[in-house]
Amino acid sequence: MIEVRALTKAFGAQRAVDELSFTAPAGKVTGFLGPNGAGKTTTFRCLLGLAEPTSGDALIGGRPYGDLVSPRRHVGAVLESMGFHPARTGRDHLRVIARAAGLDAAGIDPLLEVVGLRTAVDRRVGAYSLGMRQRLGIAAAMLGDPQVLVLDEPANGLDPGGVSWIRRLLRLWADEGRTVVVSSHLLAEVAQVVDRVVIINEGMLVAETDIAALTADRVTVRVDRADLMQSALRAEGADFEMLAGGVISIEGRTTADIGGIAARAGVTVTELGQMSAGQTLEAMFLAVTGGDRR
């Protein structure tokens, strides 16, 4: 389990992370989302012992990363800033990591098979594509068979088949009882695999919810007179919220219900439909981060 408690990281007068608190439970895939510059990478760096928090805690299994004995056996990470020695082969890259961490190198070849690099193990990493380096990074994260995985843009550089593969892998890890935290800008992909989402903006928490709450029966409507429609929805006892762009999102009602309410209110419907998980997540993301105004 990952616990972030009132985490603050300041660089001079600028707070990159500001009193941030959230949890990522075992057996779940948690999406850690936010616009560029929101503080996601800084949070990961504090969590992984690469930066010292100004205040607060970032804990893995109840302990800071620096207090973990043989940390690669507890947590594996894929960060965008990961470096690879271009002259080493894929196999040698993992051997160096295993030796430094005191891990058994016997699991390297099976891991390379799992990540789809079997035919490239003896090629120099400098000749790898971006997607191949991403797969190698995932293999490195799994060397110690950790119970916690922290992944920053894991689908970066992968082709559509690779994106589908990483989605299945994240689900498998969570179903095995591991804690999985993934940061991504591909909201439609995130919505297909995560169990819960944590959204931050300007270093602060702006939303934390289970994906099931987002994918509950939800209808969206856009009308010419939003004020009249809102009054009609209140009169009907409907649970609704305003989203970006004048869209009204209503939970627990069908499109037929909403169409009828609009007709009785005398408003003109310009858009009406069900929202997919990806659309719902995107709408919420834009609403809580002000992304529609960027």
Describe the protein:
The protein is α/β, with parallel strands linked by helices and 294 residues long. The chain has 2 domains: 2-211, Rossmann fold (3-Layer(aba) Sandwich), CATH 3.40.50.300; 215-293, Alpha-Beta Plaits (2-Layer Sandwich). Helices cover 34% and strands 27% of the residues. The protein has helices at 40-47, 90-101, 108-114, 130-141, 160-175, 187-193, 211-214, 226-235, 255-265, 277-289, and strands at residues 2-11, 14-24, 29-33, 55-60, 75-78, 148-152, 179-183, 196-201, 204-210, 218-223, 239-242, 248-251, 269-274. The strands form 3 sheets. A 6-stranded mixed β-sheet has the order 5-6-7-3-8-9, with helices on both faces. It has a 4-stranded antiparallel β-sheet with strand order 11-12-10-13, covered by helices on one side. A 3-stranded antiparallel β-sheet has the order 2-1-4, covered by helices on one side. Strand 6 (148-152), helix 5 (160-175) and strand 7 form a beta-alpha-beta unit. Helix 5 (160-175) packs parallel to helix 6 (187-193), helix 6 (187-193) packs across helix 10 (277-289) and helix 8 (226-235) packs across helix 9 (255-265). The longest helix has 16 residues, at 160-175. It starts with a strand and ends in a 5-residue tail after the last helix.
